[in-house]
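Agenda item 2: pyridoxal-5'-phosphate complex prediction
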Amino acid sequence: MELIFEKSRPGRTAFTLPHCDVPEIDVADVIDKGLLREDIDLPEVSEIDLIRHYTRLSQRNFGVDLGFYPLGSCTMKYNPKINEEVAALPAFTELHPYAPIEFSQGSLRLMYELNRYLCEICGMAAFTLQPAAGAHGEMTGVMIIKKYFEKKGEARQTVLIPDTAHGTNPASSALCGFQIATVRSDQDGGIDINHLNERMTADVAGLMLTNPNTLGLFERRIEAVAEIVHAKGGLFYCDGANMNALMGITRPGDLGFDIIQLNLHKTFSTPHGCGGPGSGPLGVAAKLADFLPVPRIVKTADGYGLSDDCSDSIGRMRSFYGNFNVMVKAYAYIRSLGAEGLTRAAQNAVLNANYVKERLKPYFDLPYDRPCMHECVFSGQRQVKESGVHTTDMAKRLLDFGYHPPTIYFPLIVPEAIMIEPTETESKETLDAFCDTMIRIAEEARENPEQVKSAPLTTPVRRLDEVLAARRPDVLWKG
Ligand SMILES: *Cc1c(COP(=O)(O)O)cnc(C)c1O
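Presented output:
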């Protein structure tokens, strides 16, 4: 496909202006010479070329509005468009962030109520909506852990993290100055209790656990784990990015967690990925509520307000109040589904993942064979052994059939990992068609491995150097 620069022809424009009916002036007379840019070499194209170019580019993209997107650990579900429409209402989008409190009552009320809903869903005492992403919420949580022990006069240095964890967990802890110690998983895919007992000392500030974990498995001994951490005075942190499996069914607070971050841009109706605005609210148990960021949304005698009144607060985590439009979508989602609807969404997410797991089990290695939660993790090791076809080859082959591939090579403890998260929004027909395709690829791997290894065969570009593209992206056009 030609670049827009290559389509450029001198003198073509995509606009027409009416004749100038005022005296013309020379810009150099009114703008400082040093600020004037000449020869910036922008492409010169007609309107129709412009439209075709960007429409074609948009059609080369893939999104959940186009097809199945089973990217594990990302919850790429379809989100009702009505929530986008609600978030786009001018009363929300045109409210100036410096508008006086009296004029912002509706938005403040929405944030206040969303906060209460999240407390209820998670079993926590208080929430902050400020963090702008999951990892940002984690960092907020770890800063609270740090401040909590500082206030108690304890210099705990270490945060425990299971070997199944998302990479952001050790990153957030390290960023706050903690040492990281890893806790192993057992053959069950749960946390190794003996190893946890060994590692959980009075130097440990807390354990960060994802539940369900990144193997898509519920931590069966969750109460025992909480007890071990609490017995040594530690705090128990839940990475709640996988809340899509639990909402309405169980509450992390009831399981013994002291802190949790949610990814509204996974579970609560904002698409994940593409670097768009996200929101990673953080909830805490009552004993940590005074450490939450300020300002807080409070209920006042005549409505809603903002309060900075909190001596133990870790301070502000984000300019203004966070990514408000994401909160509106979460609010609309929660209100429209209600308690029953949220529960059914989680139940169907789990049902769909188990359906895919059972259908694909005969064809791919399943390292942890027990009922899964919202996602299932296979290993492509059988295919490697039988025919030298790797997981990455099978993922590329899926592109030929119009599917976004699952997450691959994560979690790290599963060799050749294939992590499938179908989500609740897909029909049985879609799941069946995807499973049929996966089974067909498993057959191809045996019978015609070269075909799989050379995939994708039908995409505009074939195999790219992904490392080079990520590490040294070359986006500068040099004509
Ligand atoms: C997605 C995810 C995160 C990180 O969330 P971001 O919003 O991308 O920072 C953290 N932990 C788990 C388990 C996740 O799936």
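Discussion summary: The chain has a mean pLDDT of 95.
Owner for follow-up: CH.
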